[in-house]
Amino acid sequence: MPNLTLERAFQSLKPAAVLDVGCGCGGHSTRTLLELCDRVVAIDVAPRLARWHEIAQSSKARFSCMDALALGFPRDAFPLVVESAALHHIARWPEVLTEMLRVSSDSILLQEPLDDLRSAAKQRTFEAQGLFLSLQAEVGVPHYLHLTRDAILLALEGQAVIVETRLETSDAPVSFDEFFESFDVFASQSGRKEYWLDKLQTMRSKFAGAPLCEDDTLTMWATKRTTR
Ligand SMILES: C[S@@+](CC[C@H](N)C(=O)[O-])C[C@H]1O[C@@H](n2cnc3c(N)ncnc32)[C@H](O)[C@@H]1O
């Protein structure tokens, strides 16, 4: 997670507790939040019990298996509610924004990868992402196209929030193997592993060793009008 905006949110709000929506294994967004706040509540629809237990033992994080579409917390339960790279895994993500705003008494902070086809490396990355999405769709792991700033702004329309946006661009190279590190794991779940490995090989030949690149990151901070 890029910390600048997060740190600003913490400096401004000094939240006693923060909710991390779609926390995954807890090793990334939750750990970052734990550096800034003692009390982190983290939820994900897919439980990673062993990892959660390990992190919870050495910190004040509390993990729960929960669907972001129906957060089991009362209205205004957390001053700050954060998500990092989770929205684009959820088909009905605009409803998640409504839920995040319901359980937040002040602000929500969104951090999502962003596509921009400004270079050949970005275009290769977009194509590579497409291959991953097709495989993941086949094995039932929801993962959709990256969101856009306009789509998020549209979803927030009528929500009585003030929105600040920050775009962090990156052209740092990522090797083909690094990008497709977990491809084999998903291909093994598909029932037609050879087909997917052939597709990967075709793409590898086409790219001929040229690198992919990191995603840009879009950060949006939405504050309820009533709190300002
Ligand atoms: C790319 S991971 C991001 C994990 C973490 N926030 C991070 O920064 O690394 C996306 C996560 O969203 C979770 N997710 C997908 N649909 C969800 C839902 N309906 N409710 C809660 N979490 C969900 C997935 O299980 C996955 O762990």
Compile the SSE list and pairings.
Elements lengths: L2 H11 L3 E5 L7 H6 L4 E6 L4 H9 L3 E5 L12 E7 L8 H11 E11 L5 H19 L10 H8 L4 E8 L4 E2 L1 H4 L3 H6 L4 H15 L4 E2 L2 E9 L4
Parallel strand pairs: 1-2, 1-4, 2-3, 4-5
Antiparallel strand pairs: 5-9, 6-9, 7-8
Helix pairs in contact: 5-9
The structure holds S-adenosylmethionine.
How is this structure best described in words?
The chain is of the alpha/beta class and 228 residues long. The protein has one domain (3-227): Rossmann fold. The protein is built from nine helices and nine strands. The chain has helices at residues 3-13, 29-34, 49-57, 93-103, 120-138, 149-156, 176-179, 183-188, 193-207; strands at 17-21, 39-44, 61-65, 78-84, 104-114, 161-168, 173-174, 212-213, 216-224. Strands 3-2-1-4-5-9-6 form a seven-stranded mixed β-sheet, with helices on both faces. Strand 4 (78-84), helix 4 (93-103) and strand 5 form a beta-alpha-beta unit. Helix 5 runs antiparallel to helix 9. The protein is globular. The two termini are 26 Å apart. The mean pLDDT is 94. S-adenosylmethionine binds next to loops. The site of S-adenosylmethionine (SAM) has 16 residues, from loops.
